[in-house]
Q: What sequence folds into this?
């Protein structure tokens, strides 16, 4: 095996659905680029805190999110309160490039090509396991390059 998950990645993987766990391990084996798992299952409270990023107190209140979580000056990181991260069907990955976690704020075409190599490894692993996944980089509304989710 060329790559091995860190303890931190493993702790996150252990929070998700068994099939998604198997997917992560097989994807790492198939990937030409090392990667970390930076997000696994979220609690509803964690999701509400993330929802507050890039939103005003009024927007939070409208969505039923505590207004204290509003952080209008920060970059928006999620578009929903019903994320598949809540059900343990989603993970976020980060490529590891030159020994460092790769998380560009605004990915360039070259950055996206790096994400795609890992996403392709997830896709071939999913095909081998007989499960259907979506990569956030394929979404047309808002792209979410680190995001992988298993369809219900
Ligand atoms: Zn995600």
A:
């Amino acid at each position: 095996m060329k790559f091995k998950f860190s303890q931190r990645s493993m702790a996150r993987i252990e929070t998700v659905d068994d099939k998604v766990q198997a997917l992560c391990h097989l994807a790492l084996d198939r990937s030409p680029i090392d990667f970390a798992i930076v997000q696994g299952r979220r609690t509803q409270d964690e999701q509400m805190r993330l929802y507050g990023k890039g939103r005003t107190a009024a927007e939070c209140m409208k969505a039923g999110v505590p207004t204290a979580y509003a952080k209008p000056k920060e970059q928006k990181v999620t578009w929903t309160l019903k994320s598949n991260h809540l059900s343990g069907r989603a993970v976020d990955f980060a490529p590891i490039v030159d020994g460092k976690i790769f998380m560009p704020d605004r990915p360039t075409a070259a950055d996206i090509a790096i994400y795609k190599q890992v996403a392709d490894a997830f896709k071939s692993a999913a095909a081998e396991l007989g499960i259907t996944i979506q990569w956030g980089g394929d979404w047309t509304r808002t792209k979410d390059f680190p995001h992988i989710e298993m369809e219900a």
Q: What stands out?
A: The mean pLDDT is 95.
